[in-house]
């Protein structure tokens, strides 16, 4: 698995002030996309402590939220605010370092980890206006410290204290028109953690819990930092509809090795569509 190398967005912005944006990052078709903005709804909130207490009402609420929204805010999660803020501060500081410092952690051929971009599979596809740092954090034996920044000094400690399996750090530089296929406004109450049902969850539930496509509202002047932490099974685990769910219905997805699934996932272009949809999915996934 690998992603083709592309120029640093931060370097391009520094050189041109964000005025000269290459065509690979422009998406004029966004003007024709359906847009629905009817006020602001608050993303549903789930109380983690109530779930731990086996609170039936909260479990039922989680089920409804996963079916209807695919995204929720998690409260009472026991992650201290200072840990979250410390991690954000360290990541922001890393991306503010000179280019020669960040290049020490550039992705290598055949690798996804490191500083660069993801989902770049061709020389002419559309790209996100962003630079990324992608790291495996758990289990400890999978860590490759070749790609872990040694600056700021407590970067490794903060990642070790707060992130689960693998993490994707993205400072999104929003100076260009972005593609919004269809969306409506929602408000997000910090410092809650945002939880999104991923594509594996859609497969496990045989399509009951959809993996939603989403975009953050962008700012034409300011940078945006996103920190995504992914929970994943063992690389050799088998991925398919759970028998308890699909026992009396047709399976919508085939069962595949997790490693093969990830190869398909990272080879998909970022085009605002889920690669699990029937008209988008690879033959290896759709039953």
What layout of secondary structure does this protein have?
Layout: H1 9-16, E1 41-42, E2 45-47, H2 48-52, H3 56-68, E3 71-75, H4 81-96, H5 99-102, E4 114-116, E5 132-136, H6 155-162, E6 166-173, E7 186-187, E8 193-196, H7 199-204, E9 223-230, E10 238-239, H8 243-246, E11 256-257, H9 258-266
Calculate Rg over CA atoms. 20 Å
Structural class: alpha+beta
Secondary-structure element string: HEEHHEHHEEHEEEHEEHEH
State the separation between the terminal residues, measured CA to CA.
24 Å
Q: How many extended strands?
A: 11
Assess the beta-strand content as a share of residues.
Answer: 15-25%
**Unreliable stretches, pLDDT < 50, 5 or more residues?**
164-183
Features:
287 residues; alpha+beta; four-stranded antiparallel beta sheet; three-stranded mixed beta sheet; 11 strands
Task: Please provide a brief summary of the model.
The chain is an alpha+beta fold. The chain contains nine helices and eleven strands.
How is this structure best described in words?
- This protein has 287 residues and is α+β, with helices and mostly antiparallel strands.
- Helices cover 25% and strands 15% of the residues.
- The chain contains nine helices and eleven strands.
- The strands form four sheets. The chain has a four-stranded antiparallel sheet with strand order 4-5-6-9, with helices on one face. It has a three-stranded mixed sheet with strand order 2-3-8.
- Helix 4 crosses helix 6.
- It starts with 8 loop residues before the first helix and ends in a 21-residue tail after the last helix.
- The relative contact order is 0.17.
């Amino acid at each position: 698995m690998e992603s083709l190398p592309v120029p640093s967005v931060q370097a391009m912005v520094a050189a041109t002030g964000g005025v000269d944006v290459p065509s690979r990052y422009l998406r004029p078709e966004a003007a024709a996309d359906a847009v629905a903005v009817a006020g602001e709804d608050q993303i549903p909130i789930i109380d983690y402590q109530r779930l731990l207490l086996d609170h039936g009402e909260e479990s039922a609420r989680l089920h409804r939220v996963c079916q209807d929204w695919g995204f929720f805010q998690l409260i009472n999660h026991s992650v201290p605010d200072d840990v979250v803020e410390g991690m954000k501060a360290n990541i922001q500081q890393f991306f503010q370092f000179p280019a020669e410092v960040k290049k020490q952690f550039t992705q290598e051929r055949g690798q996804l980890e490191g500083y660069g971009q993801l989902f770049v599979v061709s020389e002419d596809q559309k790209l996100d206006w962003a630079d990324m740092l992608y790291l495996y954090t758990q289990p400890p034996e999978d860590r490759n410290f070749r790609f872990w920044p040694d600056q700021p000094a407590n970067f490794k400690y903060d990642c070790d204290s707060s992130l689960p399996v693998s993490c994707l750090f993205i400072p999104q530089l929003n100076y260009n028109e972005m593609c919004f296929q269809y969306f409506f406004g929602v408000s997000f109450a910090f410092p809650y953690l945002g939880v999104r049902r991923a594509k594996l969850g859609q497969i496990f539930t045989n399509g009951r819990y959809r993996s939603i496509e989403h975009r953050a509202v962008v700012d034409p002047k300011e940078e945006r930092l996103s920190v995504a932490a992914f929970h994943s099974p063992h690389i050799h685990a088998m991925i398919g509809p759970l028998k308890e769910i699909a026992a009396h219905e047709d399976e919508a997805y085939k069962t595949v090795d997790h490693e093969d699934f990830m190869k398909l996932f990272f080879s998909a272009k970022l085009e605002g569509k889920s690669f699990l949809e029937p008209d988008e999915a690879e033959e290896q996934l759709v039953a």
